[in-house]
Structure formats: structure tokens, C-alpha cells
Design a protein that fits this description.
This protein is an alpha/beta fold. It contains 19 helices and 12 strands.
Length: 425
């Protein structure tokens, strides 16, 4: 069985296997795990390892609950591919994910951890994500895996099979070779990045930032955030905001029950149509030509109408009253945030930390629309330490700016009730 285009350091390789045995290649071997006995052996062999690198192959566009197809693992004990479609469960692997004594190494692992949370309700412990780590070490954030491998290890990785049909069985040899490549380089990459992080005294910062991948909050479905992302949310009445929230909750529940993508239940483009017409009754929904695709599912029309006219609950009223209302953006705010972005970018270049890591764009946007908001990430931790008191004060005060030109120097003064915060350019 020939792998066409194998790993970069061999040109041709044959796979010889029987169930539960090891695939052999010229410079690599890996176990293909398809039975619970093999999975238990994998767990027993690896339950005390120091580190575990892993990646997953999944399909998410066809269903509400993603279909996990393969799990690729590399440890000091060897390399493994777990066939999560054929296996009845992944208990041994999940125990390793939860084990705080084992370092989990991923690259852009947030989606991998999200799938494990959605399917099994577990959270990882003790994680290092190389995409995050690289952002502290003069790489852009997010950086592509193949870029890291090329720059750090001088190896070219072909990602041509990224959208392969991983649910098809049997898995073909090209898919196996591709899947394995995603984990073979993770530990060598981490060794390379770790040394750079040690020299720059960035290890603790990287660990702090990676810790967010262990938070349940990151992976939970949040219908309120979905409603707040609606482009015209703040133009809606309180009753319309509550109805919008009900639509998103209903859509998620229906998608989960039928295991279909949310867009197949009700597309985002049609949410405004339901929002506008549902309270007027079923006939109003039927009469909108954009709703023709739902004429065969007229039970939805009645459900939407009932949601639109149902009394507002105390919990819903409490939620709508708690929503932060955006403050009116002043013309001077545009100048202020342009200056703040320049300060952050300048600090980013000075430190060699990606701007989007140093100050997440969504936090700046929220600060701009709500002058009372100050993000928790600036109140403590590595960002506060690196940006320094002056920059953090500027981000917190957000007062009016005045500019004073003196020869070749420009002094920028931020006015505030408690005094001025000065900067010099």
C-alpha cells in the first residue's frame, strides 16, 4: 500500500498493518487504533507521559454537533491515530486531556477543545498552544501551522487535504499521512519556541494566555452574545430584543434536536424577516416571498408567532435591562482611538508581540462604544505589566486630547477630571 507523497523526509513509504499492530515507515511508526482494547493499551502506555501533542479531523458544516472523525496523537511513547468513528468511546484519550500532569500541545487548538467540550463535556488542563506562543515571539497572530513549521523547522507542509471527507471509511493512505503530519512536528516546534520564549522571558506570559483554553466560558453556546452581534440590535425596542433572543434560543434547540446546522433551520438572512413579521401573525409570514422555503414547514410560523406574543418573563426583562447601551461616539474619540492603536502597535513592535494578542480588537471596539467599559485583561496580568502604567491609564481614562508642537517634538496631553496624562512623540 503506497503513500503518494509521504512526509518531507521520505519520498515513498509502504504501510503494513493488521488490527492492533503498528504501521511501519522508513523513519516513523504509528499505531492505528480502531478497537477499545487498542485504546486501553494506548491509555496504559501513555498515562504517565510528560507531554501529549494532538490534533483532530472533523466535519462541522453538515450538522449542529460536529462529527469527530480522527484524533492524531504524538507522545514520548510513539505516534497514534484514533478512529473516533469506529471507536465506541474515547475515554482513555479524554483522561489524558484532563490530566493536569500532562502538557497538551496544540496549534490553533481552540476548535479541537471546543469539539471535545461539545461532545464529551470535558475541559483540558495544562495546555500550550503554539499559535498563541508564536504570537509572543515575533510572529503575527494568528499564524498558520505550515508557516511555523517552515520557519522553525525548515520543512514544507502540504495542506491540500484540509477539506478531505474525513468521515469516509476506510481512511485512505494519503489521509493517514496528512493527518499524522499535523502532530509529528508539534513537539519539535514547541522545543524551538520554548527556547526563544525562555531567552525573552515570555514563558509565564504564554502560559497565562494559554490558560484561557481551559475555561468553560470559552466554549459554551451563548445566545445573548449571538443576539448582541445582530447588526441593528440597539435600534430594536426592548420587546424586539427579547424576541430576537428567543429566536436564537429556539433555533439552537431545533438545530440540536435535528442535528442540523443552525443556518439550515433558519438562516441569518431570514432572522430579520421573522423578527419583523411574526407578531402580525402567520398570514404575514406566509405573505413574505422570502419565506417561501418554509411553506412546507408551516408549524414554524405558529411557533414564531407564539414566541413573538408570549409575555416577557422577569429573567428576560432583567437581561434586556442589563445590556450595555453604546455611548455616542464623539468626533474626538476617533482621534483618541487612532492614537491608542498607534501606541499599542508601537509597543507591539518594540516587544515583538503580535498586536492582536497585546490588545484584542474586540476589546478596543467595546471600549470605543462604551466609555465606561474597561477590560479585565488590562486590570492585571501580563498585558498590564508590559503596556506600562502610562498606556494603561490612557486606555482607562480615554479623555480629550490636546496637541502641543514644540520644535521637532509633539506633546500629547489627555485631559481628565483628575488631571492630565502626558505623552511625548
Amino acid at each position: 500500500m503506497l503513500i503518494e507523497k509521504g512526509l518531507p523526509y521520505f519520498r515513498r513509504a509502504f504501510l503494513h498493518y493488521r488490527e492492533g499492530t503498528v504501521f511501519m515507515q522508513k523513519k516513523i511508526q504509528f499505531s492505528f487504533i480502531k478497537t477499545l482494547d487498542a485504546l486501553n493499551a494506548f491509555y496504559q502506555e501513555n498515562k504517565e507521559v510528560e507531554w501529549m501533542a494532538f490534533d483532530t479531523e472533523f466535519i462541522s458544516e453538515r450538522s449542529y454537533i460536529p462529527k469527530l472523525c480522527l484524533v492524531q496523537v504524538a507522545t514520548p511513547k510513539g505516534n497514534y491515530i484514533l478512529d473516533s468513528i469506529l471507536l465506541e468511546h474515547l475515554d482513555g484519550f479524554l483522561e489524558l486531556i484532563k490530566n493536569p500532569d500532562i502538557i497538551k500541545i496544540t496549534c490553533a487548538g481552540e476548535n479541537d477543545y471546543r469539539i471535545l467540550f461539545q461532545l464529551y463535556g470535558i475541559l483540558p488542563k495544562n495546555v500550550i498552544d503554539l499559535q498563541i506562543a508564536a504570537g509572543f515571539l515575533h510572529y503575527p497572530y494568528p499564524v498558520a501551522f505550515q508557516t511555523l513549521v517552515s520557519k522553525e523547522l525548515n520543512i514544507h507542509v502540504n495542506k491540500a487535504m484540509k477539506v478531505s471527507d474525513w468521515s469516509s471509511r476506510p481512511v485512505n493512505e494519503s489521509q493517514l499521512a496528512y493527518a499524522l503530519k499535523d502532530v509529528l512536528y508539534l513537539n519539535p516546534l514547541w522545543k524551538s519556541l520554548w527556547e526563544k520564549a525562555r531567552q525573552l522571558n515570555r514563558i509565564e506570559m504564554i502560559q497565562q494566555e494559554c490558560e484561557k483554553l481551559c475555561s468553560k466560558k470559552l466554549y459554551e453556546n451563548n445566545h445573548t452574545k449571538e443576539a448582541l452581534r445582530y447588526s441593528k440590535f440597539f435600534r430594536l425596542s426592548d420587546e424586539e430584543k427579547i424576541f430576537l433572543l428567543r429566536i436564537y434560543k429556539w433555533r439552537a434547540g431545533e438545530a440540536r434536536e435535528k442535528n442540523k446546522p443552525k443556518d439550515k433551520i433558519l438562516s441569518d438572512k431570514l432572522v430579520p424577516v421573522v423578527l419583523k413579521n411574526a407578531a402580525s401573525g402567520v398570514s404575514a409570514l406566509k405573505g413574505d416571498r422570502r419565506m417561501v422555503r418554509y411553506l412546507k414547514k408551516q408549524e414554524y410560523f405558529k411557533i414564531w408567532y407564539d414566541m413573538a406574543v408570549a409575555p416577557v418573563t422577569e429573567e428576560e426583562r432583567k437581561w434586556v435591562n442589563s445590556v450595555e447601551k453604546p455611548t455616542r461616539t464623539r468626533p474626538e474619540d476617533e482621534i483618541l482611538f487612532d492614537i491608542l492603536k498607534v501606541l499599542i502597535k508601537s509597543k507591539s513592535l518594540e516587544l515583538g508581540i503580535a498586536p492582536l494578542l497585546l490588545m484584542p480588537a474586540f476589546e478596543l471596539k467595546r471600549m470605543k462604544t462604551n466609555r465606561r467599559y474597561f477590560p479585565d485583561v488590562l486590570k492585571q496580568g501580563w498585558r498590564k505589566d508590559l503596556l506600562g502604567e502610562t498606556v494603561v491609564n490612557w486606555l482607562n481614562k480615554r479623555g480629550r486630547l490636546s496637541f502641543h508642537l514644540e520644535g521637532l517634538e509633539c506633546r500629547i496631553v489627555m485631559e481628565s477630571k483628575k488631571g492630565a496624562v502626558k505623552g511625548k512623540g
